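As described in the Methods, two query proteins were run sequentially through the folding procedure within a single session, without resetting any intermediate state between them. The first query and its resulting structure tokens are shown here.
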Amino acid sequence: MFDKVRVPILGLVENMSCFICPHCNRASFIFGKEGARQMAAKKDLKLIGEYHRVVVSSPGSVVSKAYEDLAQNVVNGLKELHDNPENEIQMKLNVPHSS
């Protein structure tokens, strides 16, 4: 859809990349593994991050670290767009003219 309306895409984020058992910390890939990575490669996009359910009560956990990495990747991508405006996609509106 974004291709058709020419909206610039910073990259993909995989939500619910896996479920981590709160008892044994084992990851289960309920929806398959690396789906976003494969889609990013197919569409020639960056994979910004893969994250699981964020546990606020465990700020030092693997899940929280993945979320922090994802957020930092978004910040870095936006900074890159800001610092290099020539790389931005020029958007044109296709508005019919009334007679």
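Immediately afterward, the second query was submitted; its sequence and tokens are:
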Amino acid sequence: MRKTECFCYLLGRNVNRTNKRKIYMQGNLLRG
């Protein structure tokens, strides 16, 4: 649950290109 909360928090907070890219990759890893 904590991981999901942090993930959503980063999605809503970070809007930088690098951060977006990082989050996108992390999302793919989480989704599998």
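The chain has one domain: 2-31. We note this only descriptively and draw no conclusion about the first query from it.
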